[in-house]
Amino acid sequence: MKNASIAIAVTALTYAMPCAALQCNLGVQGVAFGAYDVFSFQSLDSTGNIAVTCDMSTPYTIALSAGQGSYGSRWLASGPYRLNYNLFTDASRATVWGDGTGGSSTVPGSSASTNFTVFGRIAARQNAHVGIYGDSVTVTLTF
Fold this sequence. Notes:
This protein is an all-beta fold and about 140 residues long. Helices cover about 0% and strands about 50% of the residues. The protein has a five-stranded antiparallel sheet, with no helix packed on it. Strands 2-12-6-9 form a four-stranded mixed sheet, with no helix packed on it. Strands 4-1-11 form a three-stranded mixed sheet, with no helix packed on it. The chain starts with a strand and ends with a strand.
């Protein structure tokens, strides 16, 4: 049989920030998974980055929206087709990064300048059609 590949990327991570006297900026690098092999027995892992820069140290939290799907099972779409994935706070991919609801967790910080890794995983052996899959997830910084 011929090996099928699917190009996958979280197309955009955007951000929203409440107005306050303290100024903070976010720099976001999306999670790009690359080619997905439907016949592989191993999950496809990748990472992205969220850089937080504030004009002074202050406590804050970083939340991610569910995008398409839910925190229990986000999904990438290519037209009518879906591919399940999720985003995590840790390299072991045990804690789902979300807004603190639905079994998800936010990430705390307090440094004036810090990088946070976003750990992504697409589970192995999903029956998916060939195509470009994507999702949009909103990053929210609350301080």
